Amino acid sequence: MAQKKVALACSVCGSRNYTVPASPNRKVRLEVKKYCKYCGKHTLHRETR
Fold it and tell me: Around Cβ 8, how many Cβ atoms within 10 Å?
């Protein structure tokens, strides 16, 4: 059975660049600084559901 995944969306441009495994234990949405290839810099990426 495949694991469910959620996307990480860039807070600046809104593009969904990354996917991470969904965790039922996580109560707050994941926020990570990642590189956005569309913005060309490191920006805050938030978990989408």
Answer: 22
Single pTM value for the model:
0.84
Distances 14 to 11, 25, 26, 42 between C-alpha atoms, Å: 6, 25, 22, 13
How far is Cα 28 from Cα 41, in angstroms, rounded to an integer? 25
Nearest partner of 34 among 25, 26, 43, judged by Cα: 43
What stretches of the chain show up as alpha helix (H) in DSSP? none
Q: How does pLDDT run along the chain (49 residues), one tens digit per residue? A: 788 999 999 999 999 999 999 998 999 999 999 999 999 999 999 999 8
